[in-house]
Amino acid sequence: MLSIQISSPGKVELVEQEKPILLSDQVLIRIHYVGFCGSDLNTYLGRNPLAISPVIPGHEIGGTVEAVGKDVPAGLFAEGMSVTVNPYTACGKCSSCRKGRPNACEHNQTLGVQRNGAMSDYIAVPWGKVIPAPGISPRDCALIEPMSVGFHAVDRGAVSDIDTVMVIGCGMIGLGAVVRASMRGATVIAVDLDEEKLDLAKRLGAAHALNSKSANFHEELMALTGGCGPDVVVEAVGSPVTYVLAVDEVAFAGRVVCIGYAKSDVSFHTKLFVQKELDIRGSRNAMPSDFNAVIRYLSRGNCPMEELISRIIKPEEVSETLQYWSENPGKVFRILAKFD
C-alpha cells in the first residue's frame, strides 16, 4: 500500500508498505482523506521535537470500515461505515488517566507524531479508538478531530450562556471553539488577523469579530463587554503576543484557556494573575464526548464544510503543498490528502 512519509526535515517521500495485518481486536480502515495538522507542518520543517523520524504523519482521519476483527463486539461496525479515529493513547496509570482525563495522558502517543500515522491506504486500530460517524462523508470525517480540540477547550473553560467568550485565532481549532461556545449560548467574540477567517467565524456563530491589528482593539473590546473584558478567553494561536493579550484582556475573575503551544518563552506581568484572580487552564487533545458532540453538530448539515477545506491534494503533491503552507500560514484552514 502507498504511504506518505516525512523522512527528514523538508523531505517527503511516497513509500510502499505491507497492508496491515488485522488483529482480532482491531478494525481495518480504508483511508479516504487525512487532514494536515500544524504538528505535521512542524515535523516537515524540523520543528517538532516530539515527532519520531522518519514518520508517517496524519491523525485527522476520514475513512470507511474495510474489515472487523473476530473479537470486536458484534453490531458496532459495518463494512463501508464512515468513521474517524481517536488518535491518542492513554496509559491508564498516570495521574491524568487515573483522574478520568486520558486526553492529557502523561505518556500519550498521537498518531503521526510519536508513532506512525494514517497517511496510508489502510490503517488498523483497536476497535475502541474507532468512532462511527453515520451520515457524515469520509471527507468531512477528517475535520472531526481538529474541531473536537476546539470543543474541548470550551469545556475546559466551563463556558455557559451567561459568558462572553473571546476566541483568539480562527483557524480550524479556534473555529471549533467558536462553534461550541455559541452552541452553549455564550456571546462569542472572534479575534484574528485575517478578515476572511473573521467573516467565517461570524457565520459559524460569533456575535462579533475583531481584527487584532486594529489600533483601537482594546477600546473596541471594552465597548463590546461593558468595559469589563471577556469572561473567558480561548488562546488558539500559540504566540507569545496572543498569550499576553489573553491575560491582559480577560475580565477580573475570568478564565484563560490555552490550546496553542508558544514556541518561545512568554513574559507576563504576573501581578494580573493575582489581581484578577484568574483561572489559567491548559487544554489538550479531546475527550470522546467532544468527538461525539462534533459529530452531532456536523450531522445537522448547516456547517459550510467546503469553506473549511483549503485544498484537497494527491499524495504526490504533499511536499510542494507543505512548502506553500509554511510560506502562507494565515490563508490555510485545512489541507486534506486524498487516498481514493
Structural category is alpha/beta
| CA radius of gyration | 20 Å
Number of helices: 12
How helix-rich are the residues, as a percent range?
25-40%
Order of helices and strands: EEEHEEHEEHHEHEHEHEHEHEHHEHE
CATH superfamily of the largest domain: Medium-chain alcohol dehydrogenases, catalytic domain
Proportion in β-strands: 15-25%
Number of strands: 15
Spans of at least 5 consecutive residues with low confidence: none
* Dominant shape: globular
Task: Briefly note the CATH topology name of the largest domain.
Answer: Quinone Oxidoreductase, Chain A, domain 1
Q: Overall pLDDT, averaged?
A: 96
Q: What is the CATH class designation of the largest domain?
A: Alpha Beta
Distance between the termini: 12 Å
CATH architecture assignment name of the largest domain: Alpha-Beta Complex
Biggest β-sheet description = 7 strands, mixed
What's the number of domains?
A: 2
Question: Which properties best describe this structure?
Answer:
single chain, 340 residues, alpha/beta, Quinone Oxidoreductase, Chain A, domain 1, Rossmann fold, 2 domains, 7-stranded mixed β-sheet, 6-stranded parallel β-sheet, 24% strand, zinc ion binding, oxidoreductase, ADH_Zn_CS, ADH-like_N
Describe the structure in your own words:
- With 340 residues, the chain is an alpha/beta fold.
- The chain has two domains: 2-142 and 304-338, Alpha-Beta Complex (Quinone Oxidoreductase, Chain A, domain 1), CATH 3.90.180; 149-282, Rossmann fold.
- It is 29% helix and 24% strand.
- The protein is built from twelve helices and 15 strands.
- It has helices at residues 38-45, 95-98, 138-141, 144-156, 172-183, 195-203, 217-224, 240-249, 271-275, 288-299, 305-308, 318-327, and strands at 2-8, 11-16, 26-35, 60-68, 82-85, 122-126, 130-132, 164-168, 187-192, 208-211, 232-235, 255-258, 279-282, 309-313, 334-338.
- Strands 3, 4, 5, 6, 7, 14 and 15 form a seven-stranded mixed sheet that branches. A six-stranded parallel sheet has the order 10-9-8-11-12-13, with helices on both faces.
- Helix 6 (195-203) links the parallel strand 9 (187-192) and strand 10.
- Helix 4 packs across helix 5 and helix 4 packs across helix 10.
- The chain is globular and about 60 Å long.
- The relative contact order is 0.15.
- The model has no long low-confidence stretch (mean pLDDT 96).
- GO terms for molecular function: oxidoreductase activity, acting on the CH-OH group of donors, NAD or NADP as acceptor; zinc ion binding.
- Pfam families: ADH_N (PF08240), ADH_zinc_N (PF00107).
- Keywords: Metal-binding, Oxidoreductase, Zinc.
- Residues 7-303 form the Enoyl reductase (ER) domain.
